[in-house]
Amino acid sequence: xxxSGLKKLDPSIDKLxxxxxxxxxxxxxxxxxxxxxxxxxxxxxxxxxxxxxxxxRLRKKRISWPxxxxxxxxxxxxxxxxxxxxxxxGRCLAIVFGTNHEVLYLMCDSYxxxxxxxxxxxxxxxxxxxxxxxQQTDRWIKEAFQMADKxxxxxxxxxxxxxLLKQLNADMDKKYVxxxxxxxxxxxxxxxxxxxAEEFVKFYHMLTERPEIDEIFMKYDDGKGFWxxxxxxxxxYHEQKLDLTEDQSKELIAAYEPQKxxxxxxxxxxxxxxxLLASHxxxxxxxVHRRVYQDMTQPIINYYISSSHNTYxxxxxxxxxxxxxxxxxALARGCRCVELDCWDGPDDEPIIYHGYTLTSKILFRDVLxxxxxxxxxxxxxxxxxxxxxxxxxxxxxxxxxxxxxATYIKSIFGDLLYAPEEPPNRIPSPHDLMxxxxxxxxxMDNPQMGKKLPRGHxxxxxxxxxxxxxxxxxxxxxxxxPSNANTDHKIKLSPEFSDCVGFKAVSFKGIEESINSNGMxxxxxxxKALKLIENNRAGVIKMNxxxxxxxxxxxxxTDSSNYNPLPMWNxxxxxxxxxxQTASEPMQLLQAKFMDNGGCGYLLKPGFLLPDERSTCPPTxxxxxxxxxxxxxxxxxxxxxxxxxxxxxxxxxxxxxxxDDTQQCKTSVKTNNGFNPRWDEDVxxxxxxxxxxxxxxxxxxxxxxxxxxxxxxxxxFHSIQEGYRQCSLLTKRGDKIPQALVLFKxxxxxx
Length: 751
Fold this sequence. Notes:
- This protein has 751 residues and is of the alpha+beta class.
- 27% of the residues lie in helices and 25% in strands.
- It contains 20 helices and 34 strands.
- The strands form 8 sheets. Strands 13, 14, 15, 16, 17, 18, 19, 22, 23, 24 and 25 form an 11-stranded mixed beta sheet that branches. Strands 4-3-2-1-7-6-5 form a 7-stranded antiparallel beta sheet.
- A hairpin with a 4-residue loop joins strand 2 and strand 3.
- Helix 9 crosses helix 11 (270-277), helix 12 (325-332) packs parallel to helix 13 and helix 13 runs parallel beside helix 14 (399-413).
- The longest helix is centred in the first third of the chain and has 19 residues, at 111-129.
- The two termini are 51 Å apart.
């Protein structure tokens, strides 16, 4: 076993990693086919990928990415962007970074070198995923050390350390820092005192001791300076609201106590307790909800479904680029319903783009290939990617190109496609449809099909159906379109394409009309949905007890902004589609809601929103949520902050739910301390419908004019664990901010 707890892949892996750590010249492939030679290094000691630039432009400068930022390493054969078209893809690879899937394209001088880099990078990814808490912390500290080591001499003097602490938001007493510096300097070199990397790790651990956690520890140690397994059981029972057995408490001590002698005696030190409290299972988010635990055998209309609007767009709705990668990004984030706007393209190749706009175009077949490759691919972000993926197709193609689309759908998806010839005797469940891809679109009439499967509006060899409502919505909002464009026209439907449709979409004519239409799907624009909910909430709930109701942003949102999804969810709408490319509060609420149930993209709706025969569970009672915001830890500066400026943080706590439950409050401001701010402030909320509530914590830096966003964390109310809990902060896009934590004490009671 190596230090990360992984078995080596084969005896040659050490040799391979050593070779990659020495550096190799690879060619960065830029847009337009430009090649830039750079020397790349895979440093598994510090878990970073680096490159050094050209002597002319970046003399002695090295740029690096933490391995933890890498989402995927792909062979060049999977180049969905077409950037590698001029080159031999067998010598190329693509490295995908972050939740937003920024891609680095590289070309190697040989096939073997390409394969070596793919193997080495993937092994490093496995190492990173299996690191324990202390290894992750030590790695982050070393990254900070390297950032401060401007002259690359492998050491930091006292002045360099003071500058680094200021960068890390630590405004600390100089005399105290000097004392810790002297303690850590064990080599005592002649001349100017310095700390090497290992000494700096020791110094940093001393500097970042957390007295608020030690205070919790001392409540149960009876002055001994350690806990017995009995003390640990008491802590869990009284504080964490969990009843541990003796064996379970001993297992926790064995896992988190770093001192071997204390382990043997079944004792836990303050350092061990600190590590235990930072573990995944002790976080604010309930670890049980990290797996699929809900009943997945009910009709699919009983579930909320994580859904994307105009999935192909990566920026605005008018001129922005369309990218195949956007589908991969959405699927990796747990999205289970993606949108394809299909139009006639040249050479009988259907294309996808935002019609009547200047957005760029991508090939329909390329999108299908990417969806097939990634629809059910597990990842650390989403290990439960096995439930059905729905393709919401907005069909603007001629009969000829619809037939081409049908050919691609059948040839690319094969047995993955759900398109039954005979009507099922009941609406299928997510479990029934596991591993299936479902086309949602208009469908021709089939007199043989009864209530359970879609029927069309008309019959004939080339059925005639209406366009999706969304096209009309877009075209009516000052969008560039041809003068002869008619968004209310009827289009002919290809029988071959119709045969591929598993879920039939119908135009909304009214609530009762939709229910009686034998359709499976109806779409509502944001404004129409809100008006319906306001005027006839009971009718909307009734409609989505019979079919899937999809909502989408108003056509006026040309900047790809999003609407608040809560009112739609609260009325039972299942497919609430948002612009995934826009990092904002609505997307953060969507990501928070669908963290639940293993992040599989399907959530069983509360009982009161289900048909009567499915409402077997009693109504959820009113709850009181009491939170003590204890402290923060290593908050970063805003991206645009001035050098040397220490932040003044405060935390805003928000409840998003039904109208009566929507509320917020905030802590006091802690001046000049983003390193270890302490609050010990209490807040309390009463929730009438806790089963619909999402709780969001946002850290801001107070500013004279506009407070700066630092990070956030959000989760469903029912996924909150009671007791002393920490949560990691996330960037606007959902990437984890290294080391940034908030410590709470949480109590939940009947209101």
